[in-house]
Amino acid sequence: MQSFVTGQLMIYLDFFPDKKIRLVGLEDRYPEVPTIPSSIDEILKTAETINWKGLFDKISNAVEGIDKAVNSKEFTASIKSLDEASRELKPVLVAIKDATGDIRKIVKKGEKIPEQVEQTLAAAKKTLQEAEQTLVSYREIVSENSVLTHEINTTLDEVANTVRSVRHLTDYLEQYPESLISGKKTSKGE
Asked: Domain segments of the chain: what residues?
């Protein structure tokens, strides 16, 4: 095993019958103790197979796409359009409510309303109430001060910072691949 922090090697004697042994076979005059790869060796072997640049390019592209979508004119226009529609819907709902009140007055006087008209008005009232609730909920969700908007902006900032940090890490590892094993070398002035 190796110390991931210090890069120092350790000798750990044990039996691992399920692991494949590794013999170097440099000198025949000395008995050789078979070895197995350490967990860090296995991690490094796996890390070598990953296309880091492609992965981070995809993450970066995804973040840029989300940022463009959220900050696009179309998104802003659709939010404004929904806001305007909800404002225009309020007077319609008030008018229906008034009409429903007028119908109730007619019913109280004993005048007969056709059953189909009554069913249509009840269905329209229910639909409009649901639409009003939906628009109120939507307005709360997409307002500039909403929790969702804040969380999306925070997440985008954190993902952008992560992508930047990983880009710096991959650039460093491309220049100094041995630093995965031995750690970062400090300058004499540090």
From this structure: 1-49, 51-178
